[in-house]
Design goal:
The chain is α+β, with helices and mostly antiparallel strands. The chain contains 3 helices and 11 strands. Helix 1 runs antiparallel to helix 3. It starts with a helix and ends in a 15-residue tail after the last strand.
């Protein structure tokens, strides 16, 4: 009987500890209006790096370090990828996993209901499944800030994005999220 009681005490302590972790993540997300960061993105083994700015909800601007000077921009409705050659690829944001990743209210609501897991005692992971998208979002266990995500892109390529050098609530330029070619 003592073993069963001890087992339930340990489970309840773990649930309480993870609830506190979830509350810290939610507190951080509620505080954030925008984040700037450096990233490393691995799409099916091809690694690219660059800098991004996210402004909630659903706005992002990323400039890749690659030789083709690729940029990715969302104004909250459309997502455009532009390459050095001048090619533009436009998508409706709601047709991409970024629709969910860039919506902090959605993430907060999901975190409140999801169980989550701790990985290597360093990272917190929440797996979100929505509209056929599987999105794994990762947070740092020490400071509870976003450190990356893993998705399948619209072409079903595995996309792993790791972020670092995070800056929070920076003053942003007025036209940061203006779509290329929308003059």
């Amino acid at each position: 009987m003592k073993k069963i009681f001890l087992f339930f005490v340990i489970i309840n302590l773990n649930n309480f500890a993870f609830s506190a972790i979830k509350e810290n993540i939610i507190k951080n997300l509620n505080y954030i209006n925008n984040i700037s960061f450096k990233f490393e993105q691995n799409i099916n083994g091809k690694i690219e790096t660059g800098n991004c700015i996210i402004e909630y909800p659903k706005k992002i601007f990323c400039k890749y370090d690659s030789k083709n000077n690729k940029i990715l921009v969302s104004n909250g409705k459309s997502l455009v990828i532009k390459t050095k050659s001048g090619s533009y690829y436009r998508y409706r944001i709601e047709r991409t996993p970024l629709n969910y990743i860039l919506d902090k209210d959605f993430i907060i609501n999901e975190i409140q209901t999801l169980k989550g897991r701790i990985i290597d005692d360093k990272f917190l992971n929440f797996k979100i499944i929505k509209d056929g998208n599987e999105i794994n979002i990762f947070f740092d266990k020490k400071d509870f800030f976003l450190i990356g995500w893993q998705t399948l892109d619209i072409y079903q390529n595995l996309n792993i994005t790791f972020i670092h050098s995070l800056k929070i609530n920076q003053k942003l330029k007025k036209n940061t999220f203006k779509l290329p070619g929308s003059d």
